[in-house]
Amino acid sequence: MTVDEILNLEKFTFENIKVLLGSNGEDRTKLFAKSAEIKEKYVQNKVYFRGLIEMSNVCAKDCYYCGIRKSNKNLFRFNLSDDEIIKAAEFAYKKNYGSIVIQSGEIQSQAFAERIEKLLIKIRELSEDKLRVTLSCGEQNFETYKKWKEAGARRYLLRIETSNKKLYEKLHPQDGNHLYEKRLECIYSLKELGYQLGTGVMVGLPFQTVDDLAGDLLFMKEIDVDMVGLGPYLEHPDTPLYHFKDSLLSKEERLDLSFKMIAILRIMMKDINIAATTAMQAVDPIGREKALKIAANVIMPNITPKIYRENYKLYENKPCTDEDAEECQSCLEARIAMSGNEIAYGEWGDSRHYQKKNENSLF
Ligand code: SAH
Ligand code: SF4
Questions:
Q1: Gyration radius (Cα) of the chain, Å
Q2: Which residue's alpha carbon is at the smallest distance from atom 2 of ligand 1?
Q3: Which domain holds residue 55?
Q4: Which protein residues touch ligand 1 with a CB less than 6 Å away?
Q5: Could you tell me which residues are beta bridge partners of residue 101?
Q6: Using one digit for the tens of pLDDT, what is the confidence trace for 131-175?
Q7: 158 and 187 in contact (C-beta within 8 Å)?
Q8: How does the average pLDDT of the chain come out, rounded?
Q9: Which residue has the higher pLDDT, 324 or 336?
Q10: Which residue, judged by its Cα, is nearest atom 5 of ligand 2?
């Protein structure tokens, strides 16, 4: 089947997706044009801001790809104070961002759970419940997710990283603390609790194949996600996977594949929220703008206090570690206008996909 024929199908099969992921030249342009057309029709040219607060780089996990993994001794570990987090949330609220994301290394303790709960309540108060809060604090038990939901969190980002269990096991220590099944269970718990669910993968990982990526897209469709954040895998010298750096696709190829992934996803799941991720910008200074043109409708300006950013390096060359939140915003405003999009200030930007499901469930 040709790319033209595939793009006119109602539903993509595994084989169709593989063809699209391998498209080049004119076919690739057609894929991006189709995705942009669907984006325009279903989510228009609005870009939603999520102020990103990188709360702490303390992590109990040891993922083989990540620069802030527990065993990396080559960095200063920080933990923002409650006051710093509240100030960042206030900044987002005053700037009319509509929404923030609190992201952190993974800590599964009672104290951590309670701290997040208190912060959620404070943020709700300071914003009169007008700031949507997304959490991205890794795997937790059902009770903790439930408490956080009750305290005001509405969305949760937990990337599956790869939907291929065997590959997942190669990317994580097999010590009982990095189980694929547990990751899945968390994803299902979040769904059951009624969170707007975000997941995602890294693209261009060592040992990853096009089959894996096609499987990832079908996985996202299958679990019916509301939001997706995906981007190129970027090697970090202080991680075990760095050893395989010479076997990787070039960074440009990883980025291009990421663009194809979000384009196919936009066509498959028309009204979800898709992020233009920072990892895309790490490869190409206008990587996020390209993503916004093709398929994405969400961007996450970093509002972590500048002094800590240097230490939240999940990968090499992470951009914007030397800017403060104001600078970050004005830079983004210009960039988004350039991409033909418009910032939706003051809007929550809930995933339409999620909204529709909930409207339907009323009947
Ligand atoms: N600890 C939480 C959230 C912080 S990590 C969690 O793991 O869910 C956020 C994301 O950063 C991860 O989900 C992973 O997809 C991404 N990441 C980590 N290391 C990376 C790397 N080397 N290249 C690209 N993305 C990376
Ligand atoms: Fe920790 Fe998340 Fe990095 Fe894994 S990806 S080491 S859980 S911060």
A1: 19
A2: 138
A3: 3-360
A4: 65-66, 103, 105-106, 136, 138, 158-159, 161, 202, 233-234, 236, 279, 314-315
A5: 52, 134
A6: 999 999 999 999 999 999 999 999 999 999 999 999 999 999 999
A7: yes
A8: 94
A9: 336
A10: 66
* pLDDT confidence band for 360 (50 / 70 / 90): low
Query: Which CATH number characterizes residue 346's domain?
Result: 3.20.20.70
- Nearest atom in ligand 2 to 67's CA: 3
Q: How are strands ordered across the β-sheet holding 46-49? A: 51-56, 99-104, 132-136, 153-157, 196-199, 227-228, 273-276, 298-299, 46-49, 342-343
In this model, does residue 361 exceed pLDDT 60?
no
- How far CA 52 is from CA of 102, 136, 144, in Å, comes to 6, 10, 21
Q: Quick one: pLDDT at residue 363?
A: 46
Q: Which amino acid is at 49?
A: F
Closest ligand relative to 55 C-alpha: 1
Residue (of 86, 220, 235, 116) closest to 158 by Cα position: 220
Give the Å distance between the CA of 23 and the centre of ligand 2.
32
> What are the structure tokens assigned to 130, written together?
């007008």
How far apart, in whole angstroms, are the C-alpha atoms of residue 354 and residue 360?
Answer: 10
Q: What is the pLDDT of residues 270-296, one digit of tens each?
A: 999 999 999 999 999 999 999 999 999
Q: What residue owns the CA closest to ligand 2's atom 4? A: 63
Q: Left (φ > 0), alpha (ψ -120 to 50) or beta: where does 102 sit? A: beta
Is the CB of residue 6 less than 8 Å from the CB of residue 12? yes
Instruction: Give the distance (Å) from ligand 2 centre to CA of residue 104.
Output: 8
Domain count, the chain: 1
Which numbered atom of ligand 1 lies nearest the CA of 139? 8
Ligand 1 atom nearest 105 alpha carbon: 1
